């Protein structure tokens, strides 16, 4: 359906009606893979340096069987990856740590280098789509107000539900990797205490320590269904 007007046109994309002046913005935010297939990533984006959140999201998209080759193309050596694997054990955590160390050791870290490494291992999946992808908002259909700050009792209960995603959730909540390493040292092999400590640090150090920002970070790491099952958050 199209409806031309003096100022532009309304067009349908799937089930969404958008004004064509903002059509590219809608594609970039909600349908990044479609946007990248149509026009490619802008040069200004490829020249930017990924932040820690970008690298956490990238790690969740990559295939562990190709990860060593991917790191070699980024400039890390096999012995570096083997040491990280030994120290961190769980593949999902080790992949995040390896990418964070790559960023820390190199001055010129860009999305272009990530894309080049991905192409070098013949991985044609659109990983950067997911890295840049925005998130849908949440409808406030819960027992708490999204603008409120979570109580410690809530964070304690939540820590027992989240599972093994301490590094991923900590980074999404804005903690530094140094913060998270200190948590592992303080609570070795105690997943509940690690997660609870991460949530308390977030609450204490972050001005935007609201239920909403916490739920959005959890949605990014654990997915929409986790929120629906545990908190009745409608997407």
UniProtKB/TrEMBL annotation:
Keywords in alphabetical order: Membrane, Transmembrane, Transmembrane helix
Ranges for the Death domain? Answer: 168-221
The protein in question is named: Death domain-containing protein
Instruction: State any GO BP term from the record.
Output: signal transduction
Pfam families per the record? Death (PF00531)
Transmembrane segments annotated in the record for this chain:
12-31
Any keyword Transmembrane helix?
A: yes
Which InterPro entries would you find in this protein's record? DEATH-like_dom_sf (IPR011029), Death_dom (IPR000488)
